[in-house]
Amino acid sequence: MASFTQTLRRVRVKPNYETIAWKWMRYSAFAMIPLVWGHMILQDVIVGVHRIDLDYVAMRWASLFWRIYDALLLGFAFAHGVNGLRQVLNNFIHGDRARKVMNWLLFLFWLVITLIGGAALIAGVNRAFPLP
Amino acid sequence: MSNLKTTLAGYITYRGREGHWSFLLHRITGLGVVLFLTIHIIDIAFVYFNPDLFMKAIEIYRSTLFGIGEIFLVFCVFYHGVNGLRIAYLDLFKPQGWHVESQRRSARWTLTIALILWLPSAFWMLRNLLMHNYGLFGG
User: Fold this and answer.
1) Range of the domain at A69
2) What does the record give under GO molecular function (chain A) (predicted)?
């Protein structure tokens, strides 16, 4: 019986965009568990939508901690969501050209919504302070 | 159009049992959450761009229909999170753990944990909804 020697060669492949996106989806999951669950349990369950109004948002965003928290949520969750949407659409859209168009549209979609959310987060509630 | 048909037929007719179900649940919950998230970023942005419209959006969220949707949304976030942790942990740290048998068990546990996390929240949100919209529990 012939004996075989196995030769292992370690290859370092330069990560491309898809590799980075793949890793991002997974690493961001660990960050988002406390961020998203915390946000959701606090706002949807403990506070509840019936007690949320402009005063509430203004009070919350008066704290730098919550603004940074929300900025992290916006950055992590929406990018994760749009990339997930891209992966789903990849199952349905197969042509190179069509995928290119799709990628650009999704990128613009992500950028516009993130900028809108970021602008509001920085500018805050639009009315006179101090609150009545 | 044939792409759509082929892919959707694959989604439905693939018979991978637990793996198949958790794939579908992960997709559906993920799509549901990203749909809501998009709307949510825009409605919160109204606090700056158009405060009156923000209060209109909040009024819609307070309706019974959206209240029920919110309860399902919370399930989506819990399930997608627990299942996402399973995927991330295995892919990044233990790729040799992707075994059909153990992952069948693991997929069932994922759903169980998500339900256990969701039920207290769902109960409390339903209570809030009945309290504010129907005057129950002294609301």
Assistant:
1) 17-123
2) metal ion binding
**What global pTM score does this model have?**
0.92
Model confidence band, residue B15 (pLDDT cutoffs 50, 70, 90) = confident
- Residue B46, classified by CB atoms within 10 Å of its CB into exposed (0-12), middle (13-18) or buried (19+), is buried
Distance from C-alpha of A69 to C-alpha of B121, rounded to nearest angstrom: 22
Query: In this structure, is residue A7 part of a structural domain?
Result: no
Interface touch B41/A117, C-beta < 8 Å: yes
A112 lies in some domain: yes
Partner residue facing A125 (CB), from B3, B51, B84 = B51
Q: What architecture does CATH give domain B17-134? A: Up-down Bundle (1.20)
Q: Which two tokens stand for residue B14?
A: 């693939």
Which residue stretches of B50-63 are H helix? 51-61
User: A41 at the B interface (CB within 8 A)?
Assistant: yes
Round the CA-based radius of gyration of chain B to a whole number and report it: 19
Q: Give the number of other CB atoms < 10 A from CB of residue B99.
A: 11
Residue A3 counted as domain residue: no
pLDDT digits (tens, 9 = 90+) for A25-77: 999 999 999 999 999 999 999 999 999 999 999 999 999 999 999 999 999 99
CA–CA dist B119, B97 (Å, integer): 29
Query: How many structural domains is chain A composed of?
Result: 1
Q: Which of B42, B55, B81 sits opposite A33 (nearest CB)?
A: B81
ipTM of the modeled complex: 0.93
